[in-house]
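Entry for flavin mononucleotide complex. Fields follow.
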Amino acid sequence: MKKVLFVIGSLRKQSFNRQVSEYVKVLLGDKAEITELEYADLPLVNQDIEFPTPNSLLRVRKDVLGADLIWVFAPEYNASYPAAIKNLFDWLSRPMTAEPNSATAIKGKKVALTGIGGSNQTNGCREKLTALLNFIGAVVMENQVGLAVNAEAWTSNKVVLTDEQKAMLRKQAEDMLAFVG
Ligand SMILES: Cc1cc2nc3c(=O)[nH]c(=O)nc-3n(C[C@H](O)[C@H](O)[C@H](O)COP(=O)(O)O)c2cc1C
């Protein structure tokens, strides 16, 4: 069974994006093995602490290397992606050893992108995140899903997906299974 690593781009407990990821997890059922990447304990990127590699980064790299695909669920912050995601992918873009031309954990890794937020449907986030991921050698799936959250969620913190949004996510999950091979 293929291993899919979920990356939730929001650190808040009642995250809309986490709720969408939970919906997708149910959709996938037993068609993929899903785990969530723990990355909130990564230090901010700093070349002074790159070697010896921090333990949190060793763990994150191991999980990424072991995954067949990374599925990012990320909110849009100021028409871009959150700083936590930038920090994660900047670390993953770094060589794994101090040897010249050492490999990175992200190069060649397949990635799917989904986001839920305001009326911009996370377009600014996914556009810029796609550019970053391409730059560091990841392979981003073409079918990305961007959703505008139901108006009540801003106060209730409860995401209610429309039938159309559910269908988009179902199609994306099918496409992801084909993409991961
Ligand atoms: C710093 C910051 C900037 C934001 N900028 C945008 C934005 O540009 N577009 C948007 O749709 N929502 C924006 N939002 C609102 C988020 O979409 C909203 O907080 C959403 O709940 C975040 O996703 P989450 O529920 O998964 O944490 C912003 C929120 C924060 C904290």
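NOTE: The longest helix spans residues 163-180.
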